[in-house]
Task: structure prediction
Amino acid sequence: MVKINGSSFALQYKRTTNRPIDSSEMFSTLEDAEAYARNTDKEEYFPYPLQIISVESEAKLYVLINDPEIPTTDNRKHYKLSFLATEKDFSTSFLSKLNDDEAAGLIKFLRGLISYGLIQAKSGLEVGEVMDSLTAGMGILLKDGRIQADRMELRHSLTIQELIFNRLLAMESDYSFSESGRIESVELLEDGTYLLTLRKQWENDFTALSENDIVYGMVNNLASGTGEYYTSWMRVLHVDTSANTINVVIYPDAEVPGGRNYPPEELMVITRRGNPVNEDRQSYWYLSSREHCICMLDGVTKPILEESNYSIIVGRLKHLTIFDNLPINYRQSYIYCRGITAQDYFEVDYKGNVVRQENNRGKWSASESVDAPYQSGDKMYDAVYHYGCKWMCLITGTTEEPKYGSVGWAMLEGNPEFSIDIDSSNGWYFDADKFETTLTISGKLYNQDVTSHILDEDIEWTRDTGNVTEDNVWAVAHAEVGKTLPLTLNDLGSDYMMLTGCKFIAKALLRDGQDNYETINFVTF
Result:
């Protein structure tokens, strides 16, 4: 029979009640433990399923499981030992709820986990089904100093050293380059002014706003469901730097853009726009995606701007009176600036071709062409006026006179018409029986004589007496006379004495290698 300390209250209780006092039993030897489990001795024991059995001599733990090989005709429960662990295994396989402990395997908490102390995730933390990717990832990942999530909502502020988003930083509405602050709280005082407490961005952050600063802030009214934006215009009356507060008064409706002013709101960002007293605080830079431009304002002393306040506009221009007489396309971008100093300046046409700049030297001077030579470069050329025409220098240092056929000059503006004059050597009045004279052609282009450039073969003379047959014969006979045409009484036609009249027509052609200039003139006898 197994020796089980029969005087033990617990064992006597088990024998008489068939109910366990505790869930474990200790035996000195394995044989005693097996006898207890089989429960086939004359004296009946009371083992139960899944009871933990400890064998002191082996320092091992067992659990009781049903033994189907032993019949139950005696109405007893029969079990056998199933190895569970050694005492060493037991100490390393179960976690302590009282002392610091470690688990080598993965532990799953099916109903959740609540910690009142610090949670340290040395290798990272995953929430939900996680895929590590910035563009196609899912879940929440905290790993290697990174946080990946689909959305982050912060109720107060975010402090970072660097912000990178696909190398693209986008903004909307206005961006101010001036002293600013975020309103933490608003208090309406008895005198109608407002005490604004500004939020500190760090411990030693104090407002840079000053007395008499014109400040404004713009917020949306999304809470009302309208999606409207409104602006609050204020003037700073007093600054308490240590408390990081400012006392402001709002401008009347009639003194603000739009004719309606609103009180300041909590979380509104305000920025300085000008100052009616301090000239050093009357300048303001801002970038506006709403106005499609970058602006520099100067001399700002009130909320409503004057045209003189606009010093620089880059982008779409404002509808200012100084642009009224200019062909401005207000849907295109321009640059307006009061003054500019530049080393290099390029003008291009709509196709991107560089337009050379003109340096107007006034009236052309032969002496100046030597003392201060005229210039022609890739970016700039000299221009002069000569005989009422404007000429562009083509060759640096040219001493030629600007005229037709000049290698160093090209005509830009002036009279481009080619014309000829016809002169009579003996005047225009003759006795009918003593007619004799010579007609001579002279040509002009750009208000200058170009007769020497007209070739004789490019002169065509014709006659009109009304007798077509005789006129054609005359034209053939005088086809190669050139710029001078000798005439006698015989050239006037057979019917001239019958007062029919005679017209001599000259057609001249001037060739310049690219274009041909043609003109006609006539005289009548």
About this structure: Residues 357-413 form one domain. The chain has four domains: 24-86, 174-337, 357-413, 418-524. The radius of gyration is 55 Å.
